[in-house]
Amino acid sequence: MLKNLFAPLQxxxxxxxxxxxxxxxxxxxxxxxxxxxxxxxxxxxKDLRDLEIANAECANSRCxxxxxxxxxxxxxxxxxxxxxxxxxxxALIAKGYMxxxxxxxxxxxxxxxxxxxxxxxxDKQTVQEIMDEIRKLSSVTNGTAPAMAKVTAPIKxxxxxxxxxxxxxxxxxxxxxxxxxxxxxxxxxxxxxxQQYKGAIDFKSFEKFYEECRHPLVYNGDxxxxxxxxxxxxxxxxxAGVMIGRGLLAKPSLAAEYKGMRDINxxxxxxxxTHQNLLGKLFQMHQVIFDHACKTNQGDSQILSHVQSFWExxxxxxxxxxxxxxxxxxxxxxxxxxxxxxxxxS
Length: 346
Ligand SMILES: Cc1cc2nc3c(=O)[nH]c(=O)nc-3n(C[C@H](O)[C@H](O)[C@H](O)COP(=O)(O)O)c2cc1C
Prior knowledge:
binds flavin mononucleotide, alpha/beta, 2 domains
């Protein structure tokens, strides 16, 4: 079976979302957090706080398990230089994280123009410097640097990347550097940064990368059904896993349904998830997120901005008129009424 990894989506897969998903739907082997970045020369406080929500139970024990499920939570960082990389990696290591993912794929102009995410893919020198730093950090245990004082096992590093910002040659020019680095995994989203999240996926380049990559490779991009996961498993026997973002937000039971398959032909589900079952679990998950939003935010608009995003990708799973009412709600009372109506309680 392929590993199913939950992709990070800034603004959607928040700490409370990841925790509630692991508890209520499960089926995911690891949750990748939206990227931690530098703000005023330091790791951004808001990003660090969000990491702590999902790990409230195990913050002191250097454990990366999320909730009671055994899914791992892997923090991600984005950086434009080895200096930024070091600050962020040190902060996570000091917090006890043993695995860190490095973002070389974010296509948002705010990051790309600052030479981060997909904007770093055409800079072999900076990537080489960061890989050298990864080599240092992943070989040091019980090091002298304060951040490494408690570390007793090697830190693992992975990379999430695209084919390039402007052309797929960028990924292939970097591959020899990445192949030499001690990475635990590479996740490839086979689009260019300039495509953002739309347009054709370049399977031809993905296949070339799959053949030439010496690390465990994870595929990411446009997976929305169990049969697509099965198809990836059949087509790419060496693949280490699939990372799914929007597909899991739209159907949070997707990974659990795949895990419930008896074989890779997708022929025999062990337990079928009815639509009613899915809705029941969605309401349960929503309640956790709603309660958390009310506890941690003040005022209708702040709370609404957190809870309305929960439904955004779920449009196909809920009746249209409920979806519209949820989206249109400008007051908390209107929002609650829309939810009650959908649950058949009003
Ligand atoms: C709104 C939004 C926010 C995202 N935030 C991140 C992020 O913080 N880190 C990251 O590596 N990718 C981020 N991504 C990319 C996703 O992780 C994923 O690669 C992308 O959605 C394609 O996978 P999918 O087709 O399964 O959704 C984001 C994507 C979107 C649409």
